[in-house]
Amino acid sequence: MNDFVGVGILYNRSLDTLLDTVPDAVDYIEIIPDTWFSDKGVGAAGRFDMFPAYEKRILELGQRWPLVAHHVGFSLGTAGYFDEAYLDNVIRLQEQFGFLWNSDHLSYSKVHDEEVTEYSTCLALPLTFDEEVMEMLTGKIGQIKEKVDTPFLMENNVYFVKFNEEKYEEGAFLAELCNRSGCGLLLDLHNVHANATNFNFDRKQFIDSLDLKDVVEIHIAGGNVIGEMYLDSHSGRCNDEVWELLDYVVPNCPNLRGVTFEFHESYFNTMGNEGILEQLEHARAICLKSKNIVCP
Amino acid sequence: MSLKEFQQAFADLVANGDFCRAVKQNPELLDEKYVLTSLEKDRIIFLLQQSRGIGTSCMLYQINRFTPLYDLMPYTCNILGERTREYTRQFWAYYPKSNFQFKDEVMIFSQFLLEQIALGNINHIPILESLVNLEMAGNCIRFAVTDNVPSQAVIFLESLGTANRLLFSRYDVVQMLAALDQLGAGVPVDYEAIAAVNCFYLVHFTDRRFAVQMLSDAEATAIIEERMDKAQLNVLLATLV
Q1: Secondary element (H or E) of residue A8
Q2: Is residue A1 over pLDDT 60?
Q3: Domain parsing of chain A, residue ranges
């Protein structure tokens, strides 16, 4: 049940040639379902609508590789709001595509007021690591886990501001959230690298503050400096620091099931297929030092 | 309720650099808009002191909000050029509560631009109205929008199929597209060289490319009144592929 699936990739359309010609390059494919359907908005009839061509493509991918779902629309961090229709759609997608696991982010990306049911913050905003947020998330994750029969993971977020007087440090918050809610951790090592770069903390000390038994999936990616801060822009190849962290963390994650390379489609030309293969092979070489890949 | 208001305040600040500066100067403004605990108010003040972080967050808001507009209306954004920033800022004031759906964002931005053109607030680009309508036709096809289109110049008819639209344009669409492709290569648009036509086109849009066919008045009328022989219509549609 908890076998290591291998090295996967976050799907985008620039990958089609590589996947057709070197299908063994990846062991599974992660998709962001939200980019494949249209959402007519809260309360709209037939709210979630997937184009038939998209549906066909996911099914094609699913015939060749195991699929996992990385959602961006739950906005579980939004206070006073839980989108049950979104959950119903996740259940439908799960039934149709049989994802190995589902995940979303430790952040909020929607707010709501008297005028509109929800509107977008246009970026994932960080949460305060307090008891109130812990209880809110625990309740919502419980609702998801009741209805979605796969592991559900929460991804550590990137942030550009810090809050004062929080009850928990981030690592302790994540460990306690996993413990209370039963969710797993999607450990984004590039987010750790970005936060450590911007806020000058020790990457490995942060990793050590987590309970690595919670880690089910790891994200790796590249980024760059824009303006005055280092961003999680998924801009191609992983940094040396991310590889070093991967090497450090993988042997210590007994429940790890996959390592996913993410890059934004617009950066495809900075790597090409050869560059992407190099990233996947590098990740696989690190993983195989301590894991055996088992096809699900 | 308080956490909800705190999150809203944070989101509002990230969406509006002017609001950040105003609150930084006068934190009491927070009390006018939100019900916050003293800790939450302290936290807002604390994060506003992190100028790099709040500045980056504001920048990302703008990038993330502008990117779909540029992606889905590249010709319009290119021709607005340096003034794109000015008009998108006006648009964000006009429509502050963006939702997750790029379809809505782009349709409302199109509507906003058409309103500004009609009011005479944007009058320095003669072909802009026709261009906005053309890209709206493309986005209607992309997002399968068949009703409530914010322009009467873009017409959906069952007989044309979902991948085509009828478009009324004041300017020659073929010449417009050629000029805009040149603009992408750094050649300024010569508006005088684009013919005023006031006629209908059949528009097809796929893989980010337009295919268009100019129609005679008689052809357009026959299509709109659904009098055109099916074989004749198929011949016209075949010219688009």
Answers
A1: strand A6-10
A2: no
A3: 6-288
B69, two tokens: 């507009």
B residues 11-40 closer than 8 Å to A (CB): 11, 14-15, 39
pLDDT of A292 over the 80 cut: yes
Which residues make Cβ contacts (< 8 Å) with residue B73, sequence separation at least 6? B106, B109, B110, B132, B135, B139
Structure tokens at A131: 């008891």
Query: What is the overall mean pLDDT for chain A?
Result: 95
* 3-state SS string for A78-91: CCCCCCHHHHHHHH
Q: Which of A38, A108, A133 sits opposite B143 (nearest CB)?
A: A38
The verdict on B142 touching A (C-beta cutoff 8 Å) is no
Instruction: Tell me whether A225 touches chain B (CB under 8 Å).
Output: no
pLDDT at A166: 97
Q: What would be the CATH architecture of the domain defined by A6-288? A: Alpha-Beta Barrel (3.20)
pLDDT digits (tens, 9 = 90+) for A226-266: 888 999 999 999 999 999 999 999 999 999 999 999 999 98
Q: Report yes or no: A52 at the B interface, CB cutoff 8 Å.
A: no
Q: Is the pLDDT of residue A90 over 60?
A: yes
Alpha-carbon span A148 to B44, nearest angstrom: 36
Q: A253 by DSSP, 3-state: which? A: coil
Q: Taking phi first (over 0 means left), then psi (-120 to 50 degrees means alpha), and beta for anything else, what does residue B187 get?
A: beta
B70 touches chain A (CB under 8 A): no
- Please say whether the beta carbons of A236 and A196 come within 8 A: no
C-alpha–C-alpha distance, residues A131 and A144, integer Å:
20
Strand order in the sheet with B209-214: B154-155, B164-171, B196-206, B209-214
Q: Could you tell me how many CB contacts below 8 A there are between chain A and chain B?
A: 107
Q: Rounded to a whole number, what is the largest CA-CA distance in chain A?
A: 55
- Spatial distance between the Cα atoms of B15 and A68, rounded to a whole number of angstroms: 32
Q: Which of B42, B47, B55 sits opposite A227 (nearest CB)?
A: B55
Residues of B in contact with A79 (CB under 8 A): 3-4, 6-7
Residues 235-294 of A with CB under 8 A from B: none
ipTM above 0.90, yes or no: yes
Conformational region of residue A6, where left means phi above 0, alpha means psi within -120 to 50, and beta covers everything else: left
**CA B43 to chain CA centroid, nearest Å:** 36
